């Protein structure tokens, strides 16, 4: 850090910027030459981006009539010195070589003057759509001085590097970084801490999309489909842009629940005839479909779930509810749950991988996350799109999808799983129980009826020799000895089993009955 700062100081007259850069926490992030618009035209200035602001100056004897490219070429080796020196020092230190700490001495023609310090807190970068044809142009909006700097880099690549550097510096100033994800494998469906960490990652992506106004991320997040379509037509590569944490514009549209933006991006995806957009993961390995499912599960409170008040609410549901509260943060955006479910279906119709690369990510599959958070419509859509229905949760009791749905009484999800070919007699190795045992333990009569209709044996025994009847809860388990709803649920479950051939006289059959 000191070596990079000294390289900058050497470009100025003695003592001109020493006090300004005498800050132990200040770090040089990026340096280069930009053109800045002023009242009389464009002025070539040198910019040094630090962790908390920008130092800008002009060359002391620069010929203002010189062309942009000739001026840039004459100073390129000085401008890039700091970045190259930092890279060289790191390599030399690793190799154990001695490093010369002296920065090069700039001659009079290279000395900088009229230095100015610009604070970046609250600043925003802008890429105006009307300048989309100019791939070198961008703007820096400064709220403290209420000014906008109109800037040009010497190439599109240089412009993109500046925009990325400004975005990262502004984000680090204005927002706390998201917490690190727990070590993999990631038990998203059943672990509260992992679910909360994933929700924090989603919030970080949403903040990042707003830092560069006019970018594909910002337009997708704002739902400006017309402007987004125009930008893609002028700059097709904008669909491949990546945010600070690796999110794509499609991630941004999904997090903001912008169906119109998702449709525009999917149209561009289809036109490109490539799978890159749908299968592009962020830095944490989250693909767009996984992000959409997480948004459905964690982005808002869950209501209206089937048999939500039963005593068989799972630990997975508790984790999802906690993550939902963490992610929602009192969001008053008015985004409906139906809109988020619609995004999942749109991605599946576009042939997104229903398992969303969960094996490479080493996490629970989207199907398990949807079931654990009681998102029945999402789970059914994933099953019909070909999701792996035999995968089991990484954490908790390591339940497969059928058992997870049976445990929480999600009859329609159980029906979809059975119709997809999952066997009604499938046994969960961790519990040594069939789905029928799990459903009986929660007195979920609708699930019991479905399993029995699809071939589950009513007298099957678990690993401890118990039949489904033995696992039925007693009436007092409902919280009160005379709870009529709980008693009715148990009686209905008993009736479903007995009518299908369950024998009360078998050893290990005594339970709630």
From TrEMBL:
Is Secreted set as a keyword in this record?
no
ANK repeat boundaries on the chain:
397-422, 431-463
Query: Domain of life of the organism in this record?
Result: Eukaryota
Which residue ranges does UniProt annotate as crossing the membrane?
none
Protein name stated in the entry: PH domain-containing protein
Give the keywords, sorted: ANK repeat, Repeat
SUPFAM superfamilies given for it?
Answer: Ankyrin repeat, PH domain-like
Checking InterPro entries in the record gives:
Ankyrin_rpt, Ankyrin_rpt-contain_sf, PH-like_dom_sf
Indicate yes or no for the key word Repeat.
Answer: yes
Cited PANTHER family: ANKYRIN REPEAT AND PROTEIN KINASE DOMAIN-CONTAINING PROTEIN (PTHR24198), ANKYRIN REPEAT-CONTAINING PROTEIN-RELATED (PTHR24198:SF165)
Q: Which organism is it from?
A: Chrysotila carterae (Marine alga)
Fetch the Pfam families from UniProt.
Ank_2
């Amino acid at each position: 850090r000191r070596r990079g700062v000294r390289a900058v100081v050497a470009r100025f007259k003695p003592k001109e910027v020493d006090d300004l850069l005498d800050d132990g926490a200040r770090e040089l992030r990026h340096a280069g030459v930009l053109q800045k618009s002023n009242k009389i035209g464009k002025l070539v200035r040198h910019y040094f981006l630090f962790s908390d602001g920008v130092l800008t100056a002009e060359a002391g004897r620069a010929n203002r009539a010189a062309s942009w490219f000739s001026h840039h070429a004459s100073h390129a080796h000085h401008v890039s010195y700091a970045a190259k020196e930092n890279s060289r020092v790191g390599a030399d230190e690793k190799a154990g070589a001695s490093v010369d700490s002296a920065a090069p001495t700039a001659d009079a023609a290279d000395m900088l003057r009229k230095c100015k310090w610009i604070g970046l807190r609250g600043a925003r970068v802008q890429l105006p759509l009307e300048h989309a044809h100019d791939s070198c142009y961008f703007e820096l909006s400064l709220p403290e001085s209420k000014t906008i700097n109109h800037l040009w880099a010497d190439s599109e690549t240089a412009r993109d590097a500046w925009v990325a550097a400004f975005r990262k510096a502004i984000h680090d100033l204005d927002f706390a970084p998201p917490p690190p994800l727990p070590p993999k494998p990631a038990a998203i469906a059943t672990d509260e801490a992992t679910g909360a960490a994933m929700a924090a990652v989603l919030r970080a992506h949403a903040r990042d999309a707003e830092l560069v106004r006019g970018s594909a991320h910002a337009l997708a997040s704002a739902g400006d489909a017309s402007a987004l379509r125009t930008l893609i037509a002028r700059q097709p590569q904008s669909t491949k842009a990546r945010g600070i944490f690796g999110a794509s514009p499609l991630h941004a549209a999904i997090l903001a629940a912008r169906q119109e933006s998702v449709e525009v991006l999917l149209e561009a995806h289809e036109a490109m005839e490539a799978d890159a957009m749908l299968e592009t993961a962020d830095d944490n390995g989250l693909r767009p479909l996984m992000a959409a499912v997480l948004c459905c599960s964690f982005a808002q409170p869950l209501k209206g779930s089937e048999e939500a008040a039963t005593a068989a609410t799972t630990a997975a549901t508790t984790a999802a509810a906690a993550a939902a509260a963490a992610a929602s943060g009192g969001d008053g955006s008015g985004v409906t749950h139906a809109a988020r479910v619609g995004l999942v279906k749109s991605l599946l119709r576009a042939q997104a991988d229903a398992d969303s690369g969960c094996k490479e990510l080493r996490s629970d599959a989207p199907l398990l996350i949807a079931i654990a958070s009681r998102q029945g419509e999402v789970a059914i859509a994933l099953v019909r799109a070909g999701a792996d229905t035999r995968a089991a949760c990484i954490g908790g009791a390591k339940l497969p999808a059928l058992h997870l749905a049976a445990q929480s009484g999600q009859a329609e999800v159980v029906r979809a799983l059975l119709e997809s070919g999952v066997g009604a007699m499938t046994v969960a190795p961790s519990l040594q129980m069939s789905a029928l045992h799990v459903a009986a333990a929660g007195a979920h009569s609708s699930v019991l009826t479905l399993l029995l209709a699809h071939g589950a044996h009513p007298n099957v025994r678990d690993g401890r020799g118990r039949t489904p009847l033995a696992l039925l809860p007693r009436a007092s388990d409902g919280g009160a000895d005379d709870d009529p709803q709980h008693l009715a649920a148990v009686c209905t479950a008993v009736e479903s089993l007995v009518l299908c051939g369950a024998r009360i006289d078998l050893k290990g059959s005594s339970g709630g009955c």
